[in-house]
Each structure stands twice: as C-alpha cells, then as structure tokens.
Amino acid sequence: MTQTGRTARYTYGYRRSPDQDARAPARHPVIVVGAGPVGMTTAIDLALRGVKVVLLDDADRIGEGSRGICWAKRTLEIFDRLGVGEQLVEAGVTWKLGKVFLGDDLVYAFDLLPEDGHKMPAFINLQQYAVEKVLVDRVLELADIDLRWCNKVVALEQRNDGVRITVETPDGHYTLDTDWLVAADGARSAVRDLVGLGFAGVTFEDKFLIADVKMAAEFPTERRFWFDPPFHSGQSALMHRQPDNIWRIDLQLGPEADAQAEQAPERVIPRLKKMLGDIPFDLEWVSVYRFNCRRLERFVHGRVVFVGDAAHQVSPFGARGANSGVQDAENLAWKLAAVLDGQADAALIDSYDRERAQAADENIAHSTRSTDFIAPHSPAERALRNAVLSLAPHAEFARRMVNSGRLSVATVYDTLLATLDEAPFAGSAKLGAPVPDLPVRTRDGRSGHLLEHLSGGFEVLYVRDGATPSAPDGVKLTVIGEDLIDEQGMFAQRFDASPGATYVLRPDHHLTARLRSFDAGKVDAAISRALGR
Amino acid sequence: MKLVTVTQFASPDAAYVALVEARRGLSEPEAAALDAKLVLILANHIGDLDVLREAIALAKPNSASS
Ligand SMILES: Cc1cc2nc3c(=O)[nH]c(=O)nc-3n(C[C@H](O)[C@H](O)[C@H](O)COP(=O)(O)OP(=O)(O)OC[C@H]3O[C@@H](n4cnc5c(N)ncnc54)[C@H](O)[C@@H]3O)c2cc1C
What we know:
The complex is a heterodimer.
Chain A: E1 10-11, E2 26-33, H1 37-48, E3 53-56, E4 61-62, E5 70-72, H2 73-81, H3 85-91, E6 93-95, E7 97-102, E8 105-111, E9 123-125, H4 128-141, E10 145-148, E11 152-159, E12 162-169, E13 172-183, H5 190-195, E14 200-214, E15 223-227, E16 236-242, E17 246-254, H6 259-262, H7 265-276, E18 282-295, E19 300-301, E20 304-306, E21 312-313, H8 321-340, H9 348-374, H10 379-391, H11 396-399, E22 439-442, E23 447-449, E24 459-463, E25 476-480, E26 484-485, H12 490-494, E27 502-505, E28 511-515, H13 520-530
Chain B: H1 12-23, H2 28-46, H3 49-59
The complex binds ligand 1.
Ligand 1 binds near residues 39, 57, 128, 152 and 309 of chain A.
C-alpha cells in the first residue's frame, strides 16, 4: 500500500518485562492479543472491573493507514463509561444527516437521531488513529494493564485450565500462561491461524479508492453518497468530514481496476480534481481496498475468545467494523470479570458467543446488502439496482430500497440471559437492548443523563411508589424520583414506567428484566439468570 | 391514483435482497425472462387493470426510468 502521509502517528518503545526472565512461565488471568481499538477497549473495561490484564501488540505504533472514521452512539456510550467519551466527542465532528444523490439529484436523506435527550450524538467522525491514541493514554493510566509493544504471539497451546503462548520480542522468545486469552489481533488474526480456524464469507470483486484529503472546503457536515455522479460516471462516491479539515473520499473503481496503479498520485489527483474542482487539496492518505464480509463460526474456543475483526469482518458501508468490535469488548469484559471473580461459571462465556454472533450476523447481513447494492455482482443484478435508482425520485418504496450503508445501531440480544416480561411494556427501552439515555436531575440539583449515573455493575432502577425495597448484595439500587429525578418525563415515556416499576440492568447496561412492581426474589432470580446460574 | 408507491414492506432491504438473490448467477437474458414471469405473476396477484396501467406508466422509460 502506498501512503502519502506519515507512516506512524505515534510510536511507542519496547520494554523488557520481568516475565521474560522468569524461570517458569508467568501466569496471568487474562492476556489480550492486539492493541487495536477492540483489544484496548477490552483491556480497559477489564481493568476497571479489577481484572489484571497483559496487553500484547506486535507493533510499536498506532495510526498506520486510514481506516475507521465513524463512531456510533452506542460505542461512544461505552467509551464514556470507560472515561474517554467526552474527550472523543470534543475531538470529533458530530453529524447525523446523510444524503444520497443519483447523478446530481438528491434522492434520499436521513436523520440518524430521531430521539432527543441522549448525552452522546448519533455519530462522530474521528480518525481511528486519534481514537487509538486516546485509548492508549487511558490504558497507560491504569495500573492493572501491562501493555507490551513489539510482543508478537507466534505459538499457542490450549490447556485444560488455560492457554500457553509463545511471544516473540526484539530480545527473543518467551512463554506465558493465561486463564483466558482474548484474540483481538485483527482481520489477519494470527491466533485464529494458530487455533486452526477457517474464516469463511464473501469477498467483493469491486475495488474502492479510499482517500483522506486535506482542504479548506465549506462542504456540509453530512454523509454524502452519490450513485453515478457526473464527476465519477457509472460508479459510486462518498464524501465525509473529519476533524482538522480532513475529508474522507471513497471512489468505487469497479472489479477490473488495478489496485497498485490506482494508488499512484498521478492517477488519484486527477480523479479527485474532477470531484473537487478548483479547491486546492493535499493527499493525507490513499489506499485501494477490496472488502470482505466473513466470520468465525464460533467466537469461543476453549479458553480462547475472539473479538473484533479477528472474529468477524465487514465492509465499511454502515460503519460496523470497529463499532461492533467495541461492543464485543464490552459484552465480554463483564462476563470474564464475573467468571474470574467466581460469581459465574465459565459457561457464561458461551453467552458471549451467542449474543455477539447474533450481532455479527446482523452486521454482516447489513454490510453485505449495502455492498451488493453499491457494487452489483452481475449485469443482471445491476439492472435491478439501476431500476430501483431510477424509480427512487418517483416512488417512496424505491427510495427505501436505496442502500448506501445502513449505519450501525446496537443489537437487541435475543438472549437466554434475559428474563421474559410477565407484564407488557411499551416505550423505546427493549428487553435485551442497551437502555435508552435520557436527561435526569440528581438529588442535589445537577442536570445530567441517565447513562452517566449507572454503575458498571448490575443495577436496579426502581420507580418510587412509597415502598423501601432493597437490592441484593453488591447491586446498586437507584430510585427514580429520589436519587434521579425524571424532570422531563422521558424516563416514564421511554421505560413505560409506572410507580413501583423495576428494571434490572446488566453491567453492560442492557436491560435484562423488568417488573411492574418490586419483588426481591424476582430481582435476585433475574440477576442469577443473567450470570448464567 | 390507485397505485401504492409508499413501501408496504416492513423491511424494504429484505425485499430487495430476495429479488437480487433470485437473479444471482443468471445471465441478462435469463434475468429478463425471470422478470417477465415475475411481472405476470404479480400482475395477476394484484388483479386490477387500473393499477396495472398506472404501474406501467410509472415504469415506462420516458416517465420514471429515464
Ligand atoms: C477503509 C476502511 C474504513 C473503515 N471505516 C470504519 C468506520 O467508519 N467505522 C468502523 O466502526 N469501522 C470502520 N472500519 C473497520 C475498522 O477499521 C476495524 O473494524 C477495526 O480496526 C478493528 O479493530 P480490531 O481492534 O479488531 O483490529 P485491528 O485494528 O486490526 O487491531 C489488531 C491489532 O493486533 C495486532 N496484532 C496482529 N497480530 C498480532 C500478533 N500475532 N501478536 C500481537 N499483536 C498482533 C496489530 O498490530 C493491531 O494493533 C473501516 C475499515 C477500513 C479498511
């Protein structure tokens, strides 16, 4: 891959670990392989739950290349719980409008956050290396994470009670033992190969030019997508704003394009000039990609658990790659912490496989549909696609089929961990989904949002009705109407709350049970169930 | 207008995928033959000549699909 920007945004040094001098292999509760966004999120979440983590990465740097730019609300909510959400929102570009054009004509527009009162925006755009930098800084603040650069996993042995790995460093090899190994080592996962697993799916024939361009342009802060634009006839194009006057431009090149030749500035610049006209610009980064949608059949293999791109890969239309990986990380972290703490059996980790496989299937289905729409496989499929596009200006049903990427939203887990509703509930809160955010006021009069007041553990939200319920040991009880005031009535609306209504939240803020009135036994049973007991 | 042009599908994407998958691997003439059969089947299912005429008008090259 050619690159016109700098090779490394941030470089870190290798440091020898005392483990390398140990006589017998050192043993750790969790080793995370890969310090990408997903590995770092896993490590931070675990550390905040009191689990000691060794985090290994084969590189000494972050920020090579231009990859993810769109971070979804759910991901930002997770980052906020981990202590970096506000910082990222401040650094990023907030947006929620998308427009789709056919030629020069607008055929479809969307607004991503119809529900107001959320702390986090629908989406921000921020370069992946900037997000990774913030995560590394957070990792370095946490004494429970031992981050080791230039540590490459090269061999692996599954044992009855854990995993033994061989790590290659500039000083040679050493061996480590771990109760659990989290493979966050990306789409080309070495761990996946070492365990001997296949990675099946679809590779799309079309090639896409991805360019990050620096220019002082006054284009709107919207996601703009064109089918068959005048400046790039017969293909599609995407333009999206990033901070610091950087713009992401994707140009579809078709299946025949020569990936190598297309990255040369003398090829790229004229293509961009056709799009941008007289605006002066600099190339920050250029690359040509072919996209894949594929996944592991199972994400849990003994004591090895796969997260992020190591487990599943999607095309970028819909921004579901890093976003879903971060959601894998948070799903796994509390479960691993509960198992290591003896609160749950190792079998709880199977629910990670079930829940995140459901999410991966959703993400793959959406990305595949979008990519199929953008890059039809055959003339026969293209004819159907073009028929939809040409009907779109005239018929609403066709506009609804125009697909330039359906953007990432959190999965509603269809999960055995949830306790089925005994009484009906309306509202936007859904069993198995992360609870919706909303404005609240605290007892001492401060305004804020529901999610920032939630603990990282199991939590019971109870709507005051005069009783004095008590939550099980170690579970936080928040009384709505006392601890948190539902000033704008949004809790009542979104949770379909009535006096006495009781909601049980998992540590990842997914709603796992709700009752019309508090019942200590039922709350206890719901928490046991959510722990797989 | 009797013709319904707002979507009637809960998931328009899923409906589109069903149509794409039906033609996956077909040549253009094969896909055209498939489409012709689909038109006949769906037209009969609608069973209303006025609606059919409106649909034809919407689909004609010099109106919608220019
Ligand atoms: C053009 C493009 C645009 C994209 N846009 C978006 C977007 O807008 N939104 C979005 O959510 N996603 C997007 N993605 C996807 C996103 O970049 C990936 O999903 C994300 O990087 C996956 O994170 P990860 O932590 O799982 O893996 P990676 O980021 O690949 O990190 C893996 C890490 O593991 C390390 N490693 C590898 N092998 C070993 C080993 N043997 N030992 C130790 N360490 C190892 C690597 O050095 C690396 O640091 C895009 C991708 C592309 C290509």
